[in-house]
UniProtKB/TrEMBL annotation:
The lineage of its organism: Eukaryota, Metazoa, Chordata, Craniata, Vertebrata. Coiled coil: none annotated. PROSITE patterns: BTG_2. It comes from Caloenas nicobarica. This is BTG1 protein. Pfam families: BTG.
């Protein structure tokens, strides 16, 4: 499963690192280290919970959440670069859900925000989920549905 989940894990880790970069105050070297630590933590955490033939199986286990509690995997990676949970809460959205599943990585900011897809690839066997065009655009999502004071996040380019 290691190689199979590489794209999904790197997409998720890069997304959280971009959120931290947008908040400011963290150097590029620290961000790179954070991203690598988070990738390693996710790889280890998902090792026996990755089911490409049944992508939704284990989805709850692979869900990364910040909701008044810091996700332990993000907290662990941040600790490696000296960021406290308190500082993370200042830098990241107060409510963030990130789903890392085989063939799809998506997120939601705020409990009522739209679900936005960061990465999607066709499943083997030709089963495809909804085309991306049919999903609501997420460009306006960044300032919506946040319970903390709004920060301006000006980004959402995803390259795979």
């Amino acid at each position: 499963a290691g190689a199979a989940m590489r794209t999904e894990i790197s997409t998720a880790a890069a997304f959280v690192a971009r959120l931290l970069r947008a908040a400011g105050g963290i150097g590029e070297e620290q961000l790179r280290c954070f991203r690598e630590c988070l990738q390693e933590a996710l790889r280890e955490h998902y090792k026996h919970h990755w089911f490409p033939l049944v992508p939704s199986k284990g989805s709850g286990y692979r869900c990364i959440r910040i909701n008044h509690k810091m996700d332990p995997l993000i907290g662990k990676a941040a600790g490696m670069i000296g960021l406290s949970h308190e500082r993370l809460f200042q830098l990241l959205p107060s409510e963030l859900t990130l789903w890392v599943d085989p063939f799809e990585v998506s997120y939601r900011i705020g409990e009522d925000g739209s679900i936005c897809v960061l990465y999607e690839s066709p499943q083997p066997g030709g089963k495809t989920s909804k085309p991306l065009e049919s999903r609501s655009s997420c460009k306006e999502e960044w300032g919506i549905g946040r319970s903390s004071p709004s920060k301006n996040y000006n980004m959402m380019t995803v390259s795979s």
